[in-house]
Amino acid sequence: MIDKRQKALDDLPSIAGQWWRQDAACRDHWPEAWFPGDKSNDPRRWDYARAVCGGCTVRAQCLAFALDTREQHGMFGGLDPEQRRAILRKRDAA
Ligand code: SF4
């Protein structure tokens, strides 16, 4: 199985420093939880990833990265794509 989460982390562009990737709590977890695809609209599909993100020491950096790059897929910083879009809409409207 391709480790989508690890690949996403490894493919991150070299912006804003990437030191935080070393401390990502998701590195040793089930990657499909962060990139579940569109198979289900059940909001519980994010529960596993969100729980791990909740205890991650680099959550703020991860979320900042996803917002800055407008990442469209996956869970970053404990927020799913729709939650991040809501933040970006508010940010863009300000
Ligand atoms: S906040 Fe979540 S997605 Fe981001 S590095 Fe931490 S565990 Fe991974």
Order of helices and strands: HHHH
Model regions low in confidence, pLDDT < 50 over at least 5 residues: none
Number of strands: 0
Q: State the share of residues found in helices, binned by percent.
A: 40-55%
Set out the fold topology.
Blueprint: H1 4-10, H2 47-54, H3 59-68, H4 81-93
The structure holds iron/sulfur cluster (SF4).
Task: Walk me through this protein's architecture.
With 94 residues, this protein is mainly alpha-helical. The chain has one domain. It is built from four helices and no strands. It is globular. 22% of the residues are buried. The protein binds iron/sulfur cluster. The site of iron/sulfur cluster (SF4) has 14 residues, from helix 2 and helix 3.
Brief overview:
This protein is mostly helical and 94 residues long. The protein has 4 helices and no strands.
